[in-house]
Amino acid sequence: MESDDGEVVSNKQVIFKDYVPGVLKESDMYITTSTITLKVPEDCTNGVLVKNLYLSCDPYMRNRMRNFQGSYISPLKPGSPISGRGVAKVLDSRHPDYKKGDYIWGMTGWEEYSLITATETLFKIHDKDVPLSYYIGILGMPGLTAYAGFYEICSPKKGEFVFISAASGAVGQLVGQFAKLLGCYVVGSAGSKDKVDLLKNKFGFDDAFNYKEELDLDAALKRYFPDGIDIYFENVGGKMLDAVLLNMRFRGRISVCGMVSQYNLEQPEGVHNLMHLVPKRIHMEGFLVYDFFHLFPKYLDMVLPYIKQGKIVYVEDIAEGLENAPAALTGLFAGRNIGKQVVAVSRE
């Protein structure tokens, strides 16, 4: 046990101002600087003190900025630092599983240094032959989300027709590549020409379209899927879901991962074509990645070789510096990010 009391350093933080109705703005967060002792307090059994390296911007975080109760995750606390997934280096530990110098990923604070007491959310990083930021992307929650949502919920088969919305995002880009590796026909939608090019040229999708240029989404889907859709990986909701329901095949599967088009709306849009679930016997299921954490080792065994062999590529959009975190988070809902949005707090 070290006898020193730990160095006291300044700690830049991103503070959540207050619950947000309507559209999330950068001004709903602010930057402040406090101080922190780089030592786990005596009374904090199992606590871990970390230096944050990379933070994840995820659409679900928007929902934590409302005052709700009884959901799968608690709301953020006004006046406190934002919390989310990150990659960090352990500086001090009272936990038997983590020692100084270890790298971890899990729930941490939007700040330079964090004292983590909810250590059950942490995973130790063993393989460092890949970029550390991958552990909040392809090797973290988005990766496992893509894996579980595609393989476990959709039971895909070779040759099936797969459609993915928000296809260039953190999850969508992986679902498309998993589907191609399985031998499926894959089309994605995204919100800009650059993203469409990325889907076709970098991620190997069979085709892709810019939904903002389509006046009639039903007609667009009929163009790309003349024989209909077997699997829809749902990331956006709203008008896209309505159009997809018209184009699903008999015994099709819809994996509902998220509905990003609805998160900033006070009144969510209705869906009109749900009756198509009945005659077509469509299976539509929502899921949370937390239910599949037991599959994480199995997922890593599958995906790490693919990454190292170059069979799967992953695109990140990295914002440099904690002060740029609010803009990076709000940018998710304006489609500003290309690929997985990451904030680099420190590259050591």
Kindly describe this structure:
The strands form 3 sheets. Strands 3, 4, 5, 6, 7, 14 and 15 form a 7-stranded mixed sheet that branches. A 6-stranded parallel sheet has the order 10-9-8-11-12-13, with helices on both faces. Strands 1-2 form a two-stranded antiparallel sheet. The longest helix has 14 residues, at 141-154. It is an alpha/beta fold. The relative contact order is 0.16. It has 7 helices and 15 strands.
Question: What is the gist of this entry?
Answer:
The protein is α/β, with parallel strands linked by helices.
SSE diagram, text form:
Elements: E1 8-16, E2 29-37, E3 48-56, E4 83-93, E5 103-109, E6 113-116, E7 123-124, H1 141-154, E8 161-164, H2 172-182, E9 185-190, H3 193-201, E10 207-210, H4 217-224, E11 229-234, H5 238-247, E12 248-256, E13 283-286, H6 296-308, E14 316-320, H7 325-331, E15 340-344
Parallel strand pairs: 8-9, 8-11, 9-10, 11-12, 12-13, 14-15
Antiparallel strand pairs: 1-2, 3-4, 3-6, 3-15, 4-5, 5-7
Helix pairs in contact: 1-2, 4-5
